[in-house]
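A quick aside before the break. I want you to see a complete sequence-to-structure record at least once, exactly as it would be stored in a machine-readable document. Don't worry about memorizing anything.
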Amino acid sequence: MTTTSGLRPHPTAAAPASPPRRRSALVATAGVWAATRAVMVIMLVRGFHSSDIVRVEVTATYHNWYNVLVTGTMPHNDIMWQYPPAAAAIFLSPDLLPFLTYFQSFVALTVLCDGLVLVGLCRAARRSDGSMAGAVLWLGALPLLMATPFARYDVQVTLLAVGALLCLRFRPRLGGVVAGIGAMVKVWPLLTLLGTPRGKSTRDAVVAAAVSCVALLAVFALLFRDTLGFLGNQGDRGVQIESLGGSVLMFLRVIDVWPGDITFQYGAFEYTGPYVAAVARASLALTVAGFVLLLLWRVRARRWTTATPLDAALWAVMVFTVTSRVLSPQYLIWLLGLAAVCLTSKNTTQRPIAWLVVVATALTNLIFPVMYGTDILASTPLGTFLLCARNGILLHATVWSGVRLWRATVSPVPLSVPVAGPGRSA
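That is the input. The structure line, written in tokens, reads:
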């Protein structure tokens, strides 16, 4: 394992595949993408497996926000509005296709962003240490969520996070700018900067991210009123039934140990009753502990490969996702995107974690929307088992992700393994 400040590939790379073979692979990839995405869109439009409860997010919630945003005001009076100001650009983006309805335009733009993610992963596979495994994962695993990805704006956010990571390797400033834009859309893409190599790369990326955040905040403050109104709504969230803490309460409920109820509030089904506040505080404590552990890793890490920034981003987002009071099904889109980026590098430590994320994604589809109304909200034994299994897999994957990254970058290595100094490249 080697260390690199600029994360540039070794000049003696393996010979690339012949042009005809590469062209055939790209054509096959494009064909599979078009076929699977067409099926996902049909599921969304035709009402396959309760997709009406998926579709309503765009047709009602997003469209209502659009109607407020076009007046120059953030919809902060809606308790479901819990997003940074640049998210407004996503909800206004259907105006780019005025010849379609709001729903049609939003879905079309989301499909386009999905395709751009795949293009980025395929381009990364052409690097000297590249692999098509990342593109294959994104291509095949996203449809496991059926219609959900195209009725949420998380594909757009994932595109920004993936773009930031792919840019950081050779253009840290550009990567920082993209990460900053992502942070102003949904916060978590800022975590993509955690694993940037120490020195100039980190300084350039962090400064660029800060400048882009401030600039975007200023622009939206000029264009809209109540730009920061979302902060109060986010802080009032409770324990969502699909979260890690929620699965504990669901298990206690199904064995008649806990007498709480389920209430729809803040745009999600949450638990109410005794000990819910304690579970929420425990979730927050786990998040803080995870953040401290991430900072400790950052301080103690000594070895970087071209995959380290990618691996660190996946681990960081998994920590904050799994310990959160909210674990919505669309969060798996984030994890799939970051796992796919990790697999674009042959040096990644996260290969088994990536496939665990795929398993968790398949279970998530059963949880929502397939069995949501019949088993999850009813807290049946089957629904409880599925939710606890999914969250158990994610928790295990999060811990294992950190352990593998720690061993690769912090733990001592045998003297026989050459380790480059901080200023030398791989």
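Two observations worth writing down. The CA atoms of residues 15 and 128 lie 9 Å apart. The first helix runs from residue 19 to 46. We'll return to this after the break.
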